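Input.
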Amino acid sequence: MNHFLSGENIGLIFPRQAATTNWSHVEITNSLVDNRVHYSNKGICLVSPLYLYPKEINQLKSDATLKVTRTPNLNQEIIQQIETKLSLSFTPEKQQDSSTFAPIDLLDYIYAILHSPNYRDTYKEFLKIDFPRVPYPEKNNFWQLVKLGAELRQIHLLESPKVEDYITSYPEDGDNIVSRKINKKDFELNSDNNTLGRIWINEQQYFDNIPVIAWEFYIGGYQPAQKWLKDRRDRELNYDDILHYQKIIVALSETHKIMKKIDELL
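Output.
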């Protein structure tokens, strides 16, 4: 965790084991996380920072003449093998050069692979008992998977402008207090083809036009669209909370779309 406090960083969150029927236990972070971020009875999650900072970081920072150098948290033997497979050169920091790949590219590639529905289904039994294993990248689809993984990363960190293209609404005035338990009877289908619904947070107010796929979507063993509201039972949602929830719905919907695109490449 100190590598997230020492400077700018990003990391993968994953478990060693996850005894669930729907493996979705991989996330991205740019800050500290709670050790129970996953729903699992098989132990806590692990976080792998993309970069490592020197232990003497504070001392180095105090000397304006010194430049702090971070190190990619990657196995160099594996990097050399990937260089050979891709016919590309590895660079510790991202460059605008089509002949190189950087740590962030590998992270995005891994993130894409671990969001493949086919991958999750194929290795579902293995994922219950050990760390996820990632295949070596191939020339024919590496950059396409990197692009999709980057989109997922930016959406999940709510850094993508896409998350502000709201697809839901919050049409009624009221006290904004989440007084409902947020269970099945509080979610009401409101479209002819049963693809959209509304979630009532109290007797007068609701979020409308929520895609069912987003409402039921799993990340880390939880259903974020439901859990976020359940965690705020008896609390008043302020303006930022209301916008944040609508960003979550966009993020979940976009994740579903991107996951399908990833499978088309594999």
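Strands lie at 11-14, 27-29, 46-49, 51-52, 71-72, 89-90, 100-101, 187-189, 196-200, 206-211.
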